[in-house]
From TrEMBL:
This is Amino acid/polyamine transporter I. Its main location: membrane. PANTHER family: POLYAMINE TRANSPORTER, POLYAMINE TRANSPORTER PUT1. It is found in: Cell membrane. Pfam families: AA_permease_2. It comes from the Eukaryota. The chain crosses the membrane at residues 34-54, 60-79, 91-110, 140-164, 171-195, 215-235, 247-272, 340-358, 370-388, 400-423, 429-447.
Length: 480
């Protein structure tokens, strides 16, 4: 591998001496990049997409804890994760995101593990959206509740949205803007209409003896995580070193308000019945507050939002696989792009996973993905601190204004939260997650063996920074 200037770090020029690059720097630079506004809405959909699915927090803990959760949780989790994502994404403004960070700090074995866990989480997450989409529509169209119509609807929706992803990230970004505005407008109207009906005493209801902490934390976690997802497509962003930090800042504000305000209106305007606060109940709340027209609008917004989340998540997942291939972690074929600049095989793999997992229930999916996500985040936090300690002078266009001790302290609150999620997880979910992790541990040596035997072609990175080459070459020497 040739020497590389860290200050010019951008897309890895991944090529063999005698072959064309399947996804070269010149090719990607010729594509239209994602600008600020579409990027904010992509982040919005990668993280939350609005309050759809947040009803479980009221069911689990009542109004007061639910509202406090959506106020406090951003400070414990969202802001630290967004700050770390901003710093590391500007340090490594290329596709692959957190895979590159962890590979640079800990070596390609752990880079593969975080990639495997996060990709699996993304596919599991995307399997939720057809489920939620149909949950919101089944009250209006009962035939979608079960049976062949439900299965056919999931298949058709997945294929349509997969095709839109294939057509290009710029199209996905501007589609996300339209969907986001449409999805949030009914909640703005609901918040205004509910004002005369609000009774502040309803917000103060709390019963600590009757709290489902596992459901409560999983609901908050699912609605407010995945800030690092945008890093996987940093190479597709216009001027990422400037755009990404600002977009993440706007995204934190947008996501927090989009969850808190609808719950504030809903819990304050109608009498409490915690058992009713399940997936899709916000549509019923809208009917009580504003009438049937508002309920239909919320249902349409929910359907639209779930399509937006599907699009954004699939984009992140597929570009993550492309980035891993450009770094030589996955076979070169994963780095091939369509004529629209999109990762062909990554999209197909992500769509296949969605179809396989879409039969699971909402709560099963959320619990399984959250536990895997926790494992990936631990590796990211370790990588962030290690890079601060090992390479403090490396170029960071955006840098969190704290020293080494401060960088460690930023990671403490989210790690404590991760420990709580792990402790409260059920044995079934823990076992499934453990099996998935073991599969990842076995896959990496198998891929290394395939690479050495040259059964499948892997790209060789020639544009890794010096501190990356040190880790990668050390692991390669151990394997040999």
């Amino acid at each position: 591998m040739r020497d590389y200037n860290m200050n010019d770090f951008a897309y890895g020029n991944l090529q063999d001496d005698d072959d064309d690059v399947p996804s070269s720097k010149a090719a990607t630079n010729s594509l239209q990049k994602v600008s600020m506004l579409p990027l904010v809405f992509l982040i919005f959909y990668e993280v939350s997409g609005g309050p759809f699915g947040a009803e479980g927090s009221v069911n689990a803990a009542g109004p007061l804890l639910a509202l406090l959760g959506f106020v406090i949780f951003p400070f414990i989790w969202c802001i630290p994760e967004a700050l770390i994502t901003a710093e590391m994404s500007t340090m490594f403004p290329i596709n692959g995101g957190f895979v590159v960070w962890v590979s640079s700090a800990l070596g390609p074995f752990w880079g593969f593990q975080v990639g495997w866990m996060k990709w699996l989480c993304g596919v599991i997450d995307n399997a939720l959206y057809p489920v939620l989409f149909l949950d919101y529509l089944k009250s209006a169209i009962p035939a979608l509740a079960t049976g062949l119509p439900r299965v056919a609807s999931i298949l058709i929706l997945t294929l349509l949205l997969t095709y839109l992803n294939y057509r290009g990230l710029t199209i996905v970004g501007w589609t996300a803007v339209f969907m986001g505005v449409f999805s949030m407008l009914p909640f703005a109207v609901m918040s205004l209409v509910s004002i005369p009906q609000l009774e502040p005493s309803r917000w103060l209801v709390m019963d600590l003896g009757n709290v489902n902490w596992n459901l409560f934390l999983n609901t908050l976690f699912w609605n407010l995580n995945y800030w690092d997802s945008v890093s996987t497509l940093a190479g597709e962003v216009a001027n990422p070193k400037q755009t990404l930090p600002k977009a993440l800042c706007y995204g934190v504000i947008f996501v927090a308000l989009s969850n808190f305000l609808p719950l504030l209106s809903g819990t304050g305007a109608i009498p409490l019945d915690r058992e009713l606060w399940t997936d899709g109940y916000l549509a019923e709340v809208a009917q009580v507050i504003g009438g049937g027209w508002l309920r239909l609008w919320v249902q349409a917004a929910a359907a639209t939002s779930n399509m937006g989340m599907f699009l954004a998540e699939m984009s992140s997942d597929s570009f993550q696989l492309l980035g891993m291939a450009e770094l030589g972690i996955l076979p070169e074929i994963f780095a091939k792009r369509s004529r629209y600049g999109t990762p062909l095989l990554g999209i197909l793999f992500s769509a296949s996973g969605v179809l396989l997992l879409s039969g699971l229930s909402f709560q099963e999916i959320v619990a399984a993905e959250n536990l895997l996500y926790c494992g990936g985040m631990i590796l990211e936090f370790i990588a962030f601190v290690r890079m601060r300690m090992k390479h403090p002078a490396a170029s960071r266009p955006y840098k969190i204004p704290v020293g080494t001790v401060g960088s460690i302290m930023i990671c403490v609150p989210p790690i404590v939260l991760i420990c709580l999620v792990v402790v409260l997880s059920t044995l079934k979910v823990a076992l499934v997650s453990f099996v998935m992790v073991i599969i990842g541990f076995l896959m990496k040596p198998c891929l290394n063996y395939i690479d050495r035997k040259r059964w499948i072609k892997f790209s060789v990175s020639s544009d890794l920074a010096e501190f990356q080459k040190e880790n990668w070459e050390n692991e390669e020497s151990l394997i040999r």
